[in-house]
Write a structure and sequence with these properties.
Order of helices and strands: EHEHEHEHEE
Number of domains: 1
Shape: globular
Number of strands: 6
Radius of gyration: 13 Å
Structural class: alpha/beta
Strand content: 15-25%
Oligomer: single chain
Distance between the termini: 21 Å
Helix content: 40-55%
């Protein structure tokens, strides 16, 4: 199974492009009809319909994951405010691990922090 992702509103569209350059199937909410106004509910529906992992900074998806469970899978970035270049570098350093974890079991919430990865 090829992993697919959707990047949430509060993260830059350039993150989706950055990940596409790493040969990943990634969309950003701006690629959908509601664009930047896409609600969390719509993002969840898209993720479920298209079998995508949500990349977000929004802790509401944490709550959804623990209340409703999988799907969708969530990659939660708890890294504070970073320049895009710093964010991309952080993700790039962790990407192989993240992909390996999701390939092994997509039914996960992965929390990426500046100095560690936490799995649920």
């Amino acid at each position: 199974m090829r992993l697919q992702f959707i990047v949430d509103t509060q993260l830059p569209p350039s993150l989706a492009e950055f990940l596409r350059r790493r040969n990943l199937n990634v969309t950003h909410v701006i690629d959908y009809p509601s664009g930047a106004l896409t609600s969390d509910k719509e993002i969840i529906e898209i993720a479920q319909r298209e079998n995508r992992i949500i990349i977000t900074k929004d802790s509401d998806f944490w709550d959804y994951f623990f209340v409703k469970g999988y799907p969708p899978a969530v990659l939660l970035l708890q890294v504070g405010n970073l320049k895009n270049s710093e964010l991309f570098s952080l993700i790039d350093r962790r990407l192989e691990t993240i992909l390996s974890i999701y390939t092994e079991n997509i039914e996960r919430l992965i929390v990426v922090q500046r100095n560690r990865i936490v799995l649920f």
